[in-house]
Please model this.
Amino acid sequence: MFRGIMEPNELQEIIQIIRSASTKILEIYNQNFEVQYKQDESPVTLADKIAEETIINGLIKLFPEIPRIAEESFTHDTKLPATNSPFFLIDPLDGTKQFVNREGEFTVNVALIEQRIPTMGIIHIPVTNTTYWTSGDNNAWRQLGDNEPEIIRCTKADPAALRVIMSKSHTNEETESYLESLPVRERVNAGSSLKFCRIAEGKADLYPRFGSIMEWDIAAGHAILSAAGGSVTEFDGRPILYGRKTFRTPYFLAKGILP
Model:
């Protein structure tokens, strides 16, 4: 089944589910909470688990026929969706390190994958009550609180003065070597999937990632950035395909409109 553009009422229902999860995240964020650590030493909290449960239950009611792959419930034994069939990718709390450190730069991400590419994507920032989304109609939107939504677009980069956005907690020699070969005017850091949002709204040009992360970390941002006129590919230009057996991404380059 290929859905194409998601209906406006369906999209808004998913956004409301995400905002409900975000309310529960903030309730925990504003009190003392326990931090546990996974096998890969990444942190996880009760907020991650409650938000995931809220989103999954909401999506089951709306779309019982579409499988869901979510960060906290994923294991190597998780049944994978059939090749090319649609499925949801869910990151209930992207940027748990920022959550734990109370830095505010964490998000809730949901994407719909169709024929191995993200078509619909929603990113919500609980602390600022800001939502970014695309329904798959080649438009990207941003809504600040209850204000009217506005279309966002990537800006055309100055090829002699690139604005690079980087991960707050992940960089390495490969990244530094790559950036040395570019005419970089400005380097800024951002947590979670905010990097995709900043490029989509024209505040940065480039996000290089020399390191593998999970598909649910980038799928919603990929959909939004693509709808805003940008792209997410491997460094050789090959498309990023979703639904890999391990759900790990290759190295990638997210960018706005480059000459």
About this structure: Residues 162-255 form a domain with the D-Maltodextrin-Binding Protein; domain 2 fold (CATH 3.40.190.80). The mean pLDDT is 93. The first helix runs from residue 8 to 29. The longest strand covers residues 117-125.
